[in-house]
Design brief:
416 residues; alpha/beta; Aspartate Aminotransferase, domain 2; Aspartate Aminotransferase, domain 1; 2 domains; 13 strands; 34% helix
Length: 416
């Protein structure tokens, strides 16, 4: 017997692409800025919506025009790069398709792309596999989770310059945390490590957040597990010019990388890699009656972040990525040389991984200099209670002449 429906409905147009409106959104993105005043919004959720087209017109000046432009000529302040336009396209695809990698049935191609990406990248670090995360905070947590369950570690040991996510992960996992002092360059002092690390996961930092310092990765220890937090400097491994700065990384048990740094990806994009990925993934996997395959890692439902990185590497190849990393490092060298030659400037140290710190040689407060620099060109960090102006070579399109001219002008104002 045929059952006849007694109700009908119209297709919800919010889920049907509006070509004209999408083009309008793209046009607003390509214009990058707006001189329209920022919109004011009600303090409570509106009862009635204004529709998608009006929202595009309303929000474009706020979201796009009000954002910091990370590809600007003087953008050199943070570990946040501009993104290649191929990732804008793939991010749009991801949003439209809303693939969930928790279920192979929902995301068959996206899961395959992530697996292929891991096959490309893991061998570069001496690892056998891994998976995507929303960033290195989750990557570090995942690696230390595997260390606890596979090796029975009860303690995490890292330098006092390690990223805060390492101590955070130890806290979440119920592990003791021991902080080891660093030297004058911000590197972990290996001689101050405990003699017995057989109960510990040793975390080495490849590219400290404040200084860019690279811990010595070749030093041997008796740690039960060695993890390298290479959130910032990890991509140097794919540069023939700079990979030697990460010598020893292949000896680690796990590696974390923030793809939304020197892999030039949109947030939130990270990678955790393992020497024995099968054992590690088995240790951090859970099944469920509704799952066709075990859920690997911290996340449950998660999107197809690998698609954008896959597309970028497919577009550029290893050589293309290397060129952009090398360009960023060259800019950092040029800035370092300029500052080193300036009589009013004291540098923190050499250019290890594209992070340059400096202060006034006189010891005067440099905040007035920072305030005089273009927005997004410099930031401030504090080391041993001393403030330092900080530049980060995340933008390969930075104009070093513009930046050094701005610094020179700001320094002259200090004498006026």
């Amino acid at each position: 017997m045929r059952i006849r429906s007694t109700w009908s409905f119209d297709i919800d147009k919010s889920f049907d692409p509006d070509s004209a409106a999408l083009h309008r959104a793209l046009d607003a993105l390509l214009q990058s800025a707006s001189d329209k005043p920022a919109a004011e919004f009600d303090e409570t959720l509106p009862e009635n919506g204004i529709g998608e087209e009006k929202v595009i017109d309303l929000l474009a000046p706020v979201v796009i025009g009000g954002a910091r432009q990370l590809g600007a000529g003087t953008a050199f302040a943070h570990m946040d790069p501009p993104t290649p336009w191929i990732t804008w396209a793939t991010s749009l695809w991801n949003a439209a398709l809303n693939q969930n990698l928790l279920h192979p049935d929902v995301a068959p191609v996206a899961r395959d792309i992530e697996n292929r990406l891991m096959q490309w990248l893991a061998p570069c670090y001496g690892m056998t596999g891994g998976h995507m995360t929303p960033g290195s905070t989750v990557a570090n947590l995942t690696a230390l989770w595997a260390a606890r369950d596979l090796k029975g570690v009860t303690r995490v040991v890292a330098s006092d310059a390690a990223h805060l996510s390492v101590a955070k992960a130890a806290h979440i996992l119920g592990l003791r945390f021991l902080e080891v002092a660093t030297n004058d360059l911000g590197q972990l002092r290996h001689r101050e490590l405990p003699a017995d690390l057989t109960d510990s996961a040793l975390v080495l930092t490849a590219g400290a957040t404040s200084t860019g310092a690279l811990d010595e990765l070749r030093k041997k220890s008796n740690a039960a597990w060695t993890h390298v937090d290479a959130a910032w400097a990890g991509p140097l491994q794919l540069s023939q010019s700079y990979c030697d700065r990460l010598d020893g990384i292949a000896e680690a048990d796990s590696v974390a990388i923030s793809a939304h740094k020197w892999f030039f990806q949109p947030k939130e994009s990270g990678i955790v890699l393992f020497k024995d990925s099968k054992a590690a993934h088995d240790a951090v996997s859970f099944g469920g009656a509704y799952l066709a395959v075990p859920n690997v890692g911290v996340l449950g439902s998660h999107g197809a972040n690998a698609v954008s990185l896959f597309a970028t590497l497919l577009s550029w190849g290893r050589e293309g990525l290397e060129q952009r990393i090398n360009r960023a490092m060259t800019l950092a060298h040029e800035l370092h040389d300029y500052l080193d030659a300036h009589p009013d400037v004291q540098l923190f140290g050499p250019n290890s991984s594209g992070v340059i710190l400096w202060r006034l040689r006189s010891g005067r407060d440099a905040s007035a200099v920072l305030d005089a620099l273009p927005a997004g060109s410099a930031s401030m960090t504090v080391i041993d209670q001393t403030p330092w102006i900080r530049h980060v070579a995340a933008n390969p399109n930075a104009d070093m002449q513009l930046l050094t001219d701005a610094i020179g002008h700001a320094l002259k104002r200090m004498h006026a």
